[in-house]
Amino acid sequence: MAFEKERELMVETQIKARNIKDKKVLEAMLKVPRHEFIPKQLLDEAYADYPLSIGNRQTISQPYIVALMTELLELNKDKIVLEIGTGSGYQAAILSKIAKKVTSIERIDKLSSRSRNILKKYKNIKQIKGDGTKGYAKGAPYDAIIVTAAAQEIPKALIDQLKEQGILVIPVGNQFYQKLLKIKKTKNRLIEKHVCDVRFVPLIEG
Ligand code: SAH
Questions:
Q1: Among 72, 94, 152, 158, which is least packed by CB within 10 angstroms?
Q2: Exposure on the CB side of residue 177, measured as CA atoms within 13 A
Q3: How many domains does the structure of the chain reveal?
């Protein structure tokens, strides 16, 4: 099947069917060629309904989880986003279609350089090699922050670098399962919502 057709099917049966409604998210999932972010030997499975291995013991998330996390960030063309865990670069590419600017941090050298190369044509993405638990103060404050690896607790730097009224989406828990949290930063406190349970590779400090 042609990739474009596979994307249409993916959006209908995996994303819309599970109640993702934000038109900007659906549009981005239709447009971004997910297969370009996948190792060649897995091309047949590029649009399948599960995560895939991208090497270095890391994974590209299931399409539905990418769509869900993106929708939770409540983005539009005015928003500045920080992503922790570039991995394949696919999530960053989705964000870049909807937001004004995306900064994405990856701690593994090989994944950082590979994704930077694939993301070259996305002009509003800046890929950085580093430890995302520290955030990226130079680009702060952010309207939205997305963490695509499992944190044991919420890194304080990320809260500090979030704007007031900004949204942080992060899986928090142990190595086996995590709660996907949507956190809104208000003047006096953090408003936390448990969206669902998920399983991500660990966020590793340093
Ligand atoms: N968003 C990715 C999925 C990445 S999987 C995609 O669309 O493909 C999680 C990634 O987080 C892995 O690549 C892992 O190396 C990275 N990671 C783990 N700890 C990190 C840290 N402290 N800082 C930056 N990246 C980290």
A1: 152
A2: 4
A3: 1
